[in-house]
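Reviewer comment 2.1 asked that we show a complete input and output for one of the modelled complexes. We chose the hypoxanthine case, as it is the one discussed in the main text.
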Amino acid sequence: MLERIKSTAAYLKDRVSIKPQIGLVLGSGLGRLVEQVENPTTIPYSEIPNFPVSTVEGHAGNLVFGNIHGVPVVMMQGRFHFYEGYPMEDVVFPIRVMKLLGIDSLIITNAAGGMNPIHEVGDLMLINDHINLFGTNPLLGKNIDEFGPRFPDMHETYTHSYLEMAREIPCEIPVHEGVYVGVSGPTFETPAEYKYMRIIGGDAVGMSTVPEAIVATHMGLKILGISVITDLGVEGKIGSVSHEEVQEAAAKSSIHLSKFVQDFIHKHSLTLH
Ligand code: HPA
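Response of the prediction step:
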């Protein structure tokens, strides 16, 4: 596995001169964030050796290299979901490649169902912790010692200093903070499941992010996680939900999320210099 990751990273280093500092994962309906990239180099996943191929509707599959506020970044426009049938090692493969390309920080975005009663559709939520309900873990199996320890500490998966920075960023739409519950999907939750996830401490639920955050933490990356609330799993407000509605709601907020992420990267670059 390590050799596969290394050979993919070597291919990309050959093809692109940019050495990215920050990696970004763009969730459902959030692919427009790539429009913020200056001097983009777009590489379709299908051209990258060892990369899985994105299948789900509404998720383009590209790695996009470029700059945001002068900071070199690499973006995943489209991710690999466990519900598509990929093994966990494929779901997290690009995160490990991005680490070998040189990133030290990862910004993960997603669309999620809001379970906190203060949530409204379209709001943002900074992820301050997660609960893994995938029923599996991307680090199962032989540990890759080059990446990190056998038993990774998870007490600060979502970097506190990043949360502090993010809290200061002005935004035209509400920005909450809370715990993201990660599930395999592909089913949306039953009302009883939403209730359960709320009781165990969840504020939002979605079908991604947790595997990526686990391997990123294993490799020592700093993480900022942001959910767009696309539907509500709040008692009394639960209705039907579809993938189309999720994408539409995410797309509506994506302009605000784009600006938020840009401002974060700008702020982050100022603290480094
Ligand atoms: N549940 C699970 N995943 C989701 C949801 C949801 O309500 N909304 C967007 N992704």
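The chain has one domain: 2-141+153-271. We note this here for comparison with the apo prediction described in Section 3.2.
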